[in-house]
């Protein structure tokens, strides 16, 4: 009698590719989330530490060692030089605001004004600092758009100070118009510290209601980082994590079922 052949059982299905993809996707999402969180934090800490170390290296050698706690402690205190510099600069500003301090500063400026080469350098630097750090100044606090380099293309610029009377008069005489000219700085991407400075009629500048920080990030990223609500990035990150968790929870029962089912032997 011919032997009875038993039916060939179905081969066990391999683990679902969906499960593997979801696990890989969740791992990728977690890694990118960690990079987004840790990257800016690490760079910020590094730059802050570099700045503190730089100021400490400038200030601490000027202070007698007997006045520094580092002389009595087995370790160095970071930021002490920065604290000393802050107190010294604040004290200098306080003294300068008084009559005696103002007289001393004016006497020092008279001596610098009579020194060749140094006088021009000091006056130029002082004008720059007074313009940038003036409480009521408006330089580089307004963002605009101008048509550059050709008509129909727009570039981000920072508005500087209005043109001086001599410059405005010369331009008005050249153009034969009474335009109000203003200086603008056009930064280059990705390094906004370099660029072009030129004068334009104020009517040709389209002012944009965004902060200087957002405009700088827009230039440095070549348009990748758009001005937006900073909370939107965290909301998108949280949505990605929730989606990864939902996908993982949907795939988990299938994986558990495949693990619990005994494998049927092949003939």
Description:
- The chain is of the alpha+beta class and 267 residues long.
- 53% of the residues lie in helices and 12% in strands.
- It has helices at 17-59, 80-97, 99-113, 118-132, 165-175, 212-220, 230-260; strands spanning 143-147, 154-162, 181-187, 195-201, 206-208.
- It has a five-stranded antiparallel β-sheet, with helices on one face.
- Strand 3 (181-187) and strand 4 form a beta hairpin.
- Helix 1 (17-59) crosses helix 7.
- The two termini are 21 Å apart.
- The mean pLDDT is 77.
Relevant terms:
267 residues; alpha+beta; five-stranded antiparallel beta sheet; 7 helices; 5 strands; 53% helix
Secondary-structure topology with pairs:
Elements: H1 17-59, H2 80-97, H3 99-113, H4 118-132, E1 143-147, E2 154-162, H5 165-175, E3 181-187, E4 195-201, E5 206-208, H6 212-220, H7 230-260
Antiparallel strand pairs: 1-2, 1-5, 2-3, 3-4
């Amino acid at each position: 009698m011919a032997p009875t052949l038993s039916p060939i059982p179905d081969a066990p299905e391999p683990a679902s590719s969906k499960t593997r993809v979801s696990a890989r996707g969740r791992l990728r999402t977690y890694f990118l989330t960690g990079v987004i969180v840790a990257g800016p934090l690490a760079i910020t800490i590094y730059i802050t530490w570099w700045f503190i170390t730089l100021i400490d290296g400038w200030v601490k050698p000027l202070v007698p060692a007997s006045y520094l706690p580092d002389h009595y402690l087995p370790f160095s205190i970071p930021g002490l030089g920065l604290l000393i510099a802050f107190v010294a600069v604040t004290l200098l500003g306080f003294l300068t605001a008084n009559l005696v301090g103002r007289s001393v500063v004016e006497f020092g400026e008279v001596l610098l004004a009579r020194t060749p080469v140094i006088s021009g350098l000091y006056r130029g630097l002082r004008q720059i600092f007074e313009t940038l750090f003036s409480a009521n100044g408006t330089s580089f606090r307004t963002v605009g758009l101008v048509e550059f380099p050709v008509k129909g293309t727009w570039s981000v610029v920072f508005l500087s100070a209005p043109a001086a009377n001599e410059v405005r008069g010369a331009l008005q005489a050249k153009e034969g118009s009474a335009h109000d000219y203003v200086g603008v700085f056009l930064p280059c991407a990705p390094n906004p510290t370099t660029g072009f400075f030129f004068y334009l009629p104020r009517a040709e500048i389209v002012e944009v209601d965004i902060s200087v920080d957002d405009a700088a990030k827009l230039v440095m990223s070549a348009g990748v980082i758009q001005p937006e609500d900073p909370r939107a990035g965290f909301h998108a990150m949280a949505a990605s994590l929730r989606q990864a968790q939902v996908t993982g929870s949907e795939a988990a029962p299938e994986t558990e079922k495949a693990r619990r089912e005994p494998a049927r032997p092949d003939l």
